[in-house]
Specification:
Blueprint lengths: L4 H8 L2 H11 L3 H22 L3 H13 L8 H6 L1 H19 L3 H12 L3 H26 L3 H9 L2 H7 L2 H6 L1 H4 L19 H34 L1
Length: about 230
Amino acid sequence: MTNGLLVYLRSVFTPSTVSRLTLALNEKAAPVQKALDSLLPAVVGGVLYQASSPEGTAALYQLLTTTPPGEALPASQLLDTDAYRQQAADLGIDLLWQLYGPQTYQLIGAVAQHSRINVGSAITLTGVVTWLLREALHRQLADHSLAQAHWTIRLEDEVEPVWRALPPDLAGSLGWFLGPDPREPVRPVAPLASEPTGEAVTGLSWLRWSLYLVVPLLLLLLFLGLLRALIG
């Protein structure tokens, strides 16, 4: 797990594994590979976004530490065996449901539309990927005996490579799941115009009253000058 969650998940789905998985799902190879290429960073990114707030981190940490890890099986056996694959998919979808509720189906629908696989296959792949991620997170916590604060810091290092791997069109449709792109610079907000100080207000008041007095006086002098010229 020293290479990161995304690297680990990619190592599980080797070309031969994807080929066998394609046959099991009765799909074509290219759409399944496209689905996995989008699902792996998307599911990891969703977990990272969940862990970006104190409340989300606490909920995820509690969920991982209070549920036992699954049966230790080689990933190849898990993906090749129908019963194990379906069990892993069900557990993965259940985890997503605990975190996101009905919005889980928005993720599945986005993946199916993006990769052009059927919804049933998208459900299976989403569940399996999420289950494998859960097992990876379990091992990460157990192997390093990480407290919640240290685990959060470790997850922050995963954010940038995950966002680099996300297809832009999928990231745009999953803003609720992935959050904002952390690579985009935060634009500073222009400060509001400040209220004039008491000294400035006083100066403006004197100027206003001076104009009120000077302008009529000038008009009066002009009128008297014209009157004198007419009389003379």
